[in-house]
Design brief:
Helix content is about 35%, strand content about 5%. The chain contains seven helices and two strands; from the N terminus they run E-H-H-H-E-H-H-H-H. A two-stranded antiparallel ribbon has the order 1-2. Helix 3 runs parallel beside helix 5, helix 3 runs parallel beside helix 7 and helix 5 packs across helix 6. It is globular.
Length: about 220
């Protein structure tokens, strides 16, 4: 039904950061990221032909990341593909088959994502939600190590959704997610396109440094 791109760790194949699922321009430098915390990461990914913006010079880094954009981003990161057409509406009540993101939701259904049948594709994702989905999918398809972690204490850990505690902790331990200068994670804050790009860039770096075994080596 589904297949994983065997070129997972090829930088150009890892990620197509078209966060709204459209065919965005990739030429030139984005003029609206100069003040973004993710400026350097976005610039590196753009130089590799990985990051795409809403136009040749606009990325909209401060826009909120919707659930559909987040799902598509993670699917692209892991190089997940559809072998045969699937009807996303068979799995998710609010996903229309003709929507640009429908294939990504079909892929997500059996590829490690934790999505409710009533998920709203247009709903903005929180930082903990995106991190949760990212780590779950990476663990299934990136062969992340099974580790006994010592929980990292941080100032707002009491604000974490209980079901996201494990994935957020693993993201912090692996260095994919980071705390701010006040030792906070801000789990309930809506994540922006720039913040999602930064987390995804860290995921790209991690996967490149810890390649999954090839099928022939298993």
């Amino acid at each position: 039904m589904f297949k994983r791109n065997v070129a997972l760790l090829s930088a150009a194949a890892i990620l197509s950061l078209s966060l709204a699922g459209e065919s965005f321009a990739a030429a030139g430098s984005f003029k609206d990221v100069s003040q973004s915390v993710a400026k350097d990461s976005i610039s590196v990914l753009q130089a590799k032909g990985i990051v795409r913006g809403v136009s040749a010079d606009s990325f909209l880094p401060d826009d909120q990341l919707t659930t559909s954009q987040g799902v598509q981003l993670i699917v692209n990161l892991l190089g997940l593909k559809l072998d045969t057409p699937e009807n996303a509406g068979d799995y998710f009540v609010n996903v229309k088959q003709d929507a640009w993101y429908a294939p990504a939701f079909s892929i997500a259904q059996t590829n490690g994502f934790d999505l409710d049948v009533n998920v709203n594709p247009d709903k903005p994702m929180t930082r903990e939600e995106f991190t949760h989905q990212l780590i779950l999918a990476m663990e299934k398809h990136g062969d992340l190590p099974m580790i006994n972690i010592k929980p990292i204490e941080f100032a707002d850990e009491d604000q974490l959704t209980v079901s996201y505690q494990g994935t957020v902790q693993r993201a912090l331990v692996l260095g994919i997610a980071q705390l701010d200068e006040n030792n906070q994670f801000h789990p309930g804050d809506l994540i922006t396109r720039a913040e999602a790009a930064l987390l995804t860039y860290h995921a790209v770096e991690y996967l490149a440094a810890h390649p999954a075994p090839s099928p022939d080596s298993k």
